[in-house]
Write a structure and sequence with these properties.
With 178 residues, this protein is mostly helical. It has helices at 3-18, 27-60, 89-123, 130-148, 154-175. It has two domains: 3-126, no CATH class; 129-178.
Length: 178
């Protein structure tokens, strides 16, 4: 690969990071939509790659019981998408449905987090620090806990809020280190 070709590719990647995908007329809406679309794409890739992994593990005859978090029911394989086995249109429908659901969850989390941090920065007079990240992470974590399961307890919501705040704050503090 030539150096000039490498520079062109790197310039394209850098311009993608700075440019917004949408112009909806307000910076808040632009930021939320941009974050939603980018994270939804990541969520879709993650869901498809996870299913591809389980397909390879099952096809190769590996024991997938020892992969990932321990199963509550010992001896049974626990798959995220139990309907995705076999060569049928039902299997493809389940893959598309679950990939869409995962994309929506990732997109909502990113859009919510991005919108809250933008709003907090505006309200606090342009200050963007770990406090904004902690509040946005906590609210996003709590919201995601309430949307991922029908039987979510208040302990799970609080735990997700604390985890979201901790991860977001750590990422904000570490971003200044690197």
């Amino acid at each position: 690969m030539e150096k000039s070709g490498g520079r062109i590719v790197m310039d394209e990647i850098r311009s993608f990071e700075k440019a917004h995908l949408f112009d909806l007329g307000h910076p808040l809406l632009n930021r939320i939509a941009d974050s939603f679309v980018k994270a939804a794409g990541v969520g879709a890739l993650q869901a498809v790659s996870r299913e591809a992994y389980f397909t390879v593990v099952d096809g190769a005859g590996f024991d997938s019981n020892n992969v990932g978090p321990p199963s509550e029911i010992t001896g049974n394989k626990k798959h995220r998408f139990p309907n995705l086995r076999g060569e049928s249109s039902k299997s493809l429908d389940a893959l598309v449905k679950n990939t869409g659901k995962e994309s929506l969850q990732w997109g909502l989390a990113a859009g919510l987090y991005s919108g809250i941090t933008y709003g907090m920065t505006e309200v606090r007079g342009g200050a963007h620090d770990w406090r904004n990240s902690a509040v946005a992470g906590a609210l996003t974590g709590a919201a995601m806990a309430m949307t991922t399961s029908e039987r979510t307890s208040h302990e799970q919501v609080v735990q997700s809020a604390l985890t979201g705040a901790a991860i977001s704050t750590a990422a904000n503090l570490l971003s200044s280190v690197f």
